[in-house]
Each structure stands twice: as structure tokens, then as C-alpha cells.
From TrEMBL:
<protein>
    <recommendedName>
        <fullName>Cytochrome c-type biogenesis protein CcmE</fullName>
    </recommendedName>
</protein>
<comment type="function">
    <text>Heme chaperone required for the biogenesis of c-type cytochromes. Transiently binds heme delivered by CcmC and transfers the heme to apo-cytochromes in a process facilitated by CcmF and CcmH.</text>
</comment>
<dbReference type="GO" id="GO:0017003">
    <property type="term" value="P:protein-heme linkage"/>
</dbReference>
<dbReference type="GO" id="GO:0005886">
    <property type="term" value="C:plasma membrane"/>
</dbReference>
<feature type="topological domain" description="Cytoplasmic">
    <location>
        <begin position="1"/>
        <end position="7"/>
    </location>
</feature>
<keyword id="KW-0812">Transmembrane</keyword>
<dbReference type="InterPro" id="IPR004329">
    <property type="entry name" value="CcmE"/>
</dbReference>
<feature type="binding site" description="covalent">
    <location>
        <position position="121"/>
    </location>
    <ligand>
        <name>heme</name>
    </ligand>
</feature>
<dbReference type="GO" id="GO:0046872">
    <property type="term" value="F:metal ion binding"/>
</dbReference>
<keyword id="KW-0201">Cytochrome c-type biogenesis</keyword>
<keyword id="KW-1133">Transmembrane helix</keyword>
<feature type="binding site" description="axial binding residue">
    <location>
        <position position="125"/>
    </location>
    <ligand>
        <name>heme</name>
    </ligand>
</feature>
<dbReference type="Pfam" id="PF03100">
    <property type="entry name" value="CcmE"/>
</dbReference>
<keyword id="KW-0408">Iron</keyword>
<dbReference type="InterPro" id="IPR036127">
    <property type="entry name" value="CcmE-like_sf"/>
</dbReference>
<feature type="topological domain" description="Extracellular">
    <location>
        <begin position="29"/>
        <end position="162"/>
    </location>
</feature>
<dbReference type="GO" id="GO:0020037">
    <property type="term" value="F:heme binding"/>
</dbReference>
């Protein structure tokens, strides 16, 4: 075998190994990728049963119900709402009217079962995904007063049904 052929084999094997490594990395990333949806996004898109994703929006006023460690609440983007259930310890700053991002899956009955709940960490902060979603829906105004004004102007949020 000539030097040129040997070099060509090594280059070919190197390219094959690089392609295999790239395929493995992309598969690993795809398995761990979580999409973010607002309640309005869920009404416009089909979500596969059992698919884990993040749901974000505002915790609707008057919707929090605690039963031991199980908490039920409603997430809204001021256009649509999704009921959520979570069993566990909520973040200290979790409360009605505040931004929240939950991670879990949507059941066939339209109830989102959250495995984790993330709440905002100061009075001026809202998770970026939630703020972007509210801006896209046209209901974003700075601060809580803006969110309250948006709720008043729409007459509240609609309930989605899945």
C-alpha cells in the first residue's frame, strides 16, 4: 500500500469518527432539549403525549389552591389559561400575579402536571421566556400595573380545553 492510499484511509477514518461523534452529540442534545410554550402556544400547536416541556406565564389571581403538598393553580398569558398541578415544595417567592415557569407534561385532559416550578426572584424580574411571550401576544406593559391593565382590557383570560 502506498503512502498516498494510507493517508487517504486515515483521513477517511478520521472523517467517519468525527461524523459519528457529531451524531452522538446531536442525539444527546435532542433528548435533553425542553421547549418553552405559553398557554397560547399550546392552543396553536400539537404537543405529543408524554412530551416534557416548559410552560410559562403569570399565576392567575385567585387560582392557587393548596391541599397538603399538592398545589393547583392556573398559568395565563392574559389570553389563554392552562390549569397546573404540582406536588412538592414551591419556591418562596411563588404567588398569584407573578411570573412562573413550570416544567412537566400536559395530560390528555388539558391538565399540566409540573415536576418543577420556578418563580421570579425580585419585584422587577420576570423569566425571559414569559416576558417574550407576553410581548408577542401584545399584552406586555412594564410592571404589574401593565399586566393588570391588560387583564382589565381583555376582560380576563379564556380557559383552554384540550
Amino acid at each position: 500500500m502506498t503512502r498516498k492510499k494510507r493517508r487517504l484511509y486515515f483521513v477517511g477514518l478520521g472523517m467517519l469518527a468525527l461524523g459519528g461523534a457529531t451524531a452522538l452529540v446531536l442525539t444527546a442534545i435532542g433528548d435533553n432539549l425542553l421547549y418553552f410554550y405559553s398557554p397560547t402556544d399550546l392552543t396553536e400547536r400539537e404537543v405529543a403525549p408524554g412530551q416534557r416541556f416548559r410552560l410559562g406565564g403569570l399565576v392567575e389571581e385567585g387560582s392557587v389552591e393548596k391541599d397538603g403538598e399538592t398545589v393547583r393553580f392556573v398559568v395565563t398569558d392574559l389570553v389563554h389559561t392552562i390549569p397546573v398541578t404540582f406536588t412538592g415544595i414551591l419556591p418562596d417567592l411563588f404567588r398569584e400575579g407573578q411570573g412562573v415557569v413550570t416544567e412537566g407534561q400536559l395530560g390528555p385532559d388539558g391538565l399540566f402536571t409540573a415536576a418543577s416550578v420556578l418563580a421570579k426572584h425580585d419585584e422587577n424580574y420576570m423569566p425571559p421566556e414569559v416576558a417574550d411571550s407576553l410581548k408577542e401576544s401584545g399584552y406586555w406593559e412594564e410592571g404589574l400595573e401593565g399586566a393588570e391593565a391588560a387583564v382589565r382590557s381583555t376582560g380576563g383570560a379564556e380557559q383552554t380545553s384540550h
